[in-house]
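Morning F.,

Quick status update on the modeling queue. The single chain you submitted on Monday has been processed. Sequence for confirmation:
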Amino acid sequence: MKIEFMELAYQEALKAYNNDEIPVGAVIVKDDKVIATGHNLKEKMGCSIYHAEMLAIITATKLLNTWHLDDCDIYVSLEPCPMCASAIKQSRIKNVYCGLSNLDSNNEVLIKKIFESDKVNPKVNFYNNLYSDKVRSLMQKFFVEKRKK
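Structure tokens below.
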């Protein structure tokens, strides 16, 4: 895990925050170079699948001209939801580095199950709570502000 990539994921989360979106950001790295970034755009785009991870995956596959992201890692400010975990696995991303775990303990159980190897896709290595203080502070600030509105 490289802290500079986790910080970039956090910066993407700040972009979402500044657009009144749940502050989640993602960065995809290949050969120690950032090839794609994304942040939540669900509200702005009015589409439930416009999560940070999904948008970063789309950008990376277009750049590499393949859906096979075998030699890539993804840095995400918040633990992925099951939809994004499935997309990460289907993309064959090798490692997932998360800043903060989701408060829903069932979520972590589900994504760990998704990330296990199966007959088609290899195991995804999953590392969690790597940037938790900074991400937790941003998430709390976002939801406190939301409750005031």
